[in-house]
Design brief:
Low-confidence stretches: 1-31, 102-113, 301-318
Shape: globular
Order of helices and strands: HHHHHHHEEHHHEEEHEEHHHEEEEE
Number of strands: 12
Oligomer: single chain
């Protein structure tokens, strides 16, 4: 009996050693330079964009597994203070690697060539990838580069994979219904004179989202000479359990309540924005949809199975220690196999919880028609969240677009153009 128990304990020690080696080699996909990233995110939400940029720029230059996520973080910090040239470059670096079939999966593109094939590069959840292309499109749209804007918004409407965890072979590709990109694609077609395609895309928005019918009105958007892109709230956070496996995204939409509409004031006077300003997307809700999650999030299932195998192995081991003869040997062999398989599953189910922390809960699209000239524009939400810009230029013809990142401690008033402004082609 002592010999059998000794062998059993020896097997268990071996399995535990294998598990430790696996976990150590994988590194559990933890964020490099986590302290710097955390500080930069805090600075971003405090409205201290220069500090966030200074902290993130060295990280974004490193061609490691965090290349994409660090460039997206940097792009967010650059876009908010209108460093659009820099933000465009950061988004392009990230998107080129995201779209490359070369990193971790086949051929390569010029932009991805610096990232080692052997590195498991973070490419984000589908909703994060869609937001990256959406923001790049917004930058082009702000500059009146409507052809590149159109291409970027189309890139945000990639096919989604509707995974079936129980029957992987039944998983299928489905069309995207990412409303912000659909709306901005329609507006881009409108600005390049393709009214037929604009009409079709506005109609697609209304068909998928009846609540956005007023916002997707063709005439409302054609008459607009002032477009506000207003990011509000904080996006979903990927969370893991004590085992290190993803258990989902938090918070849930109902935990944060409904998204309030923005009140828009021009020179102190209210506008009609409440009639059509509806949130075109709720990223908290989108993150709960299976097709907007990557296959990696299904590792939580593997972890649960691994836990079950460990429990089953432990039960079989106890039975084996309390039996004798061939029954004991069989029970201990079964126990060893179950525990070994469970440890392996749990070791390979460790979550990659890297994420793009600067994402908002929603991105409002607010088309307005106001008298041409320079104006003070204020966007106000309940709870004291507001932002004021003075001297925004509105053209007689065409449409000027401005980006508001709503943050509790970043109210303004700010003067246009912002300090360090280098993109003189924003307004016609």
């Amino acid at each position: 009996m002592y010999t059998v128990r000794k062998r059993y304990v020896g097997r268990m020690s071996c399995y535990l050693c294998v598990s430790v080696v696996i976990c150590g080699s994988l590194g559990c996909e933890s964020q490099n330079n986590a302290r710097i990233v955390e500080q930069s995110v805090n600075n971003y939400y405090d409205g201290n964009f220069p500090a966030a940029i200074d902290e993130l720029k060295p990280l974004a230059e490193k061609t490691n597994e965090d290349f994409v996520v660090n460039n997206l973080r940097l792009a967010s910090a650059e876009m908010a203070p209108y460093r659009l040239d820099d933000a465009e470059a950061s988004f392009l670096r990230a998107i080129e690697v995201i779209n490359s079939t070369g990193v971790n999966n086949g051929g390569r593109t010029l932009g991805a060539v610096l990232v080692d094939e052997k590195i498991k590069v973070w490419k984000g959840e589908p909703f994060e990838r869609a937001m990256a292309s959406y923001y790049l499109g917004v930058i082009y749209y702000m500059r009146h580069d409507y052809q590149n804007a159109r291409a970027s918004f189309e890139n945000a409407l990639f096919k989604l994979r509707d995974y079936n965890p129980d029957r992987p072979n039944d998983s299928k590709d489905v069309d995207s219904d990412f409303a912000p990109a659909m709306l901005m694609l329609a507006k881009s077609y409108q600005r390049i004179g393709r009214d037929d395609l604009a009409k079709a895309n506005f109609q697609a928005v209304t068909d998928h989202f009846p609540a956005l019918e007023a916002l997707a009105n063709e005439q409302l958007n054609a008459d607009s000479n002032l477009l506000l892109i207003v990011d509000f709230g904080v996006g979903p956070r990927k969370v893991a359990n004590n085992d290190g496996a993803v258990v989902g995204f938090r918070p849930l939409p109902h935990e944060e309540g409904r998204i309030p509409p923005p009140l828009v004031y021009v020179d102190g006077a209210t506008t009609n924005s409440l009639q059509f300003a509806r949130p075109p997307v709720d990223l908290l809700a989108l993150a709960q949809e299976r097709r907007w999650e990557s296959i990696d999030t299904l590792r939580a299932v593997k972890s649960a199975v691994g836990t079950g195998l460990l429990i089953g192995g432990a039960v079989a081991g106890v039975n084996g220690l309390n039996s004798t003869g061939s029954r004991q040997r069989t029970d201990l062999m079964v126990s060893g196999a179950l525990i070994g398989a469970g440890l392996l599953l749990k070791a390979t189910s460790q979550a990659d919880i890297r994420q793009w922390e600067m994402l908002p809960r929603t991105s409002f699209i607010v088309p307005l028609h106001v008298p041409p000239g320079t104006h003070e524009v204020a966007v106000v939400f309940p709870g004291g969240v507001k932002q004021v810009w003075r001297g925004l230029v509105v053209p007689d013809k065409g449409e000027a677009t401005y980006y508001f990142r709503m943050l509790r401690w970043d109210n303004g008033p700010f003067n246009w153009p912002p300090v360090g402004w280098m993109n003189s082609d924003l307004a016609p």
